[in-house]
Amino acid sequence: MAGQHAEVSGIGADLGGTKVSAVVVAPDGGVIRSVYRAHDGTAQGAVASLSALLAELVSGSSGRVGVGVAAAGLIDRPTGDLVHSALLDLHSVALAATLSALVGTEVIVENDANAALLGVQGEVGAHETSLLFALGTGVGGALSVGGAVVQGSFGFAAELGHVPVEPPERHPCPCGSSGCLELFASGTAVAAAGRSAGLTGGDGGPARAEDVVAAARAGHPAGIRILESAGAAVGTALAGLIPAFDPATVYLSGGFGHGAADLLVPAIERRIRGQLPFPRARPAPRILADPVGPLAAAIGVARLARRRAAHVTHLRKGSE
């Protein structure tokens, strides 16, 4: 059986709010190529960039390949439909079927944060309980118990970006609720706070999340305050999640989360210490930047697609 699996490689793409990142993984799961492709931020532009990039990578591959896409939002895994993505304003899109027809091979679709946690855990997976916050254009989340990503009864588990961190109705969220973590700890929220505080980009243009991070590293009071607020919001969410799930590790992923982890972690830990139940009897989880980085979701979904394609190949050969 190991020989059958060794024949299959994987392609994974992460559909983000401003770009598509993709990787090709070898039969052993190692990354052999990575590429980024920007898009215009619209739903149509995002899907067009994704389709073109997948077609390019599939046409350049030899042998059997599994293809997967990680997308922010609610996924219907049996069909591969993107049920709802507030990030790209996509609703009820037959994403897997559309991409499969365009690239000429089956494409699977997974939530981007779940894929990132799979990428962090590696081919074998961890055996502890872990949480992951994907802090990027929006905020995604994932939960793993015993090495298996928890999907929930309807496939929508661990939407951590929509855990409320303040009383209702103060700040409406595009998801239809209010007070969601995404409104305070996403790269988009941090960039908006930086602009409101008068920060500018390194090129003199509007401040982006990375500019706020740079300002905080340089000791700018507004940058420090904004990242302290973002970290405290994540800590508020965790104050409710730790008693429920007892995680050993909490990963900060996504472009903003990974890049600012060392500045966010102290604020998160301070907030947790203020409300951790049974603090003398239970350890607090480790909170750290994911060890893979911005390509984690693409790597995770590529490995997932590779394993599924290898399994199908094995079943077909076994029936011959």
Report what the structure shows.
The protein is α/β, with parallel strands linked by helices and 320 residues long. The chain folds into 2 domains: 141 residues, ATPase, nucleotide binding domain (Nucleotidyltransferase, domain 5, 2-Layer Sandwich); 164 residues, Nucleotidyltransferase, domain 5, CATH 3.30.420. Helix content is 41%, strand content 22%. The protein contains 10 helices and 13 strands. The strands form 3 sheets. The protein has a 5-stranded mixed sheet with strand order 3-2-1-4-8. Strands 11-10-9-12-13 form a 5-stranded mixed sheet. The chain has a 3-stranded antiparallel sheet with strand order 5-6-7. Strand 10 and strand 11 form a beta hairpin. Helix 6 crosses helix 7. The longest helix has 25 residues. The N terminus is likely disordered.
Summarize this structure as a short list of keywords or feature phrases.
alpha/beta; Nucleotidyltransferase, domain 5; 2 domains; 13 strands; 41% helix; 22% strand; globular; disordered N terminus
